[in-house]
């Protein structure tokens, strides 16, 4: 039996998907907090007509489409060359050649207020599946904004470090998505 509702195709045409990193360690001031855009991603949101629990979200993101859009902090501003090197390093850490996609499949959606809720499911990074949770709110402009945190080490990723560990990428990485479902 099919559940009545609305299907929405999602991707860069109707939203953004970014990853936010932070730095730590004794030389942390030398590094940058990064905003990295995922340029190629796609998915579907199904909103069940009368039963939010029957709604679903699926997203697939291509790891070869990462692009550093901003680096804040640091001793010197990020140059385009630095951004390209960071993107290459991220691809290596994520083992993007062997695992070119990250995938999220929801297992439950719960309203926690009139304009907010939680989407829970499974996130697969580098072939390692772990639970993932997005806090979702509706913005003043009517867009949906979701935020969550991924622990790199939970997916077998050793966070980037330099200068013998004095500069390290923090293990928690923020994920932010913003959508206009129209």
TrEMBL record:
- Superkingdom, natural source: Bacteria
The record, for SMART domains, names:
YceI
From the Swiss-Prot or TrEMBL record, give the protein name: Polyisoprenoid-binding protein
Q: Which family does it belong to?
A: Belongs to the UPF0312 family.
Membrane-spanning intervals of the chain? none
**Domain Lipid/polyisoprenoid-binding YceI-like span(s) in chain numbering:** 16-180
Q: Which organism is it from?
A: Planotetraspora mira
Under SUPFAM superfamilies, the record lists: YceI-like (SSF101874)
């Amino acid at each position: 039996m099919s559940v009545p509702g609305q299907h929405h195709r999602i991707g860069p045409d109707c939203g953004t998907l970014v990853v936010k990193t932070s730095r730590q360690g004794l030389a942390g001031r030398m590094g940058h907090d990064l905003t990295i855009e995922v340029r190629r991603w796609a998915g579907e949101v199904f909103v069940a007509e009368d039963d939010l629990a029957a709604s679903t979200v699926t997203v697939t993101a291509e790891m070869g489409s990462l692009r550093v859009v901003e680096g804040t902090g640091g001793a010197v501003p990020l140059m385009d060359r630095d951004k390209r090197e960071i993107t290459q390093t991220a691809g290596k850490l994520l083992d993007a050649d062997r695992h070119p996609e990250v995938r999220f499949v929801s297992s439950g959606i719960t309203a926690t207020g009139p304009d907010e809720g939680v989407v829970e499911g499974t996130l697969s990074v580098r072939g390692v599946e772990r639970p993932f949770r997005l806090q979702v709110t509706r913005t003043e402009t009517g867009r949906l904004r979701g935020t969550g945190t991924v622990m790199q080490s939970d997916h077998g990723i050793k966070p980037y470090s330099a200068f013998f560990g004095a500069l390290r990428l923090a293990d928690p990485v923020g994920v932010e998505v913003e959508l206009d479902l129209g």
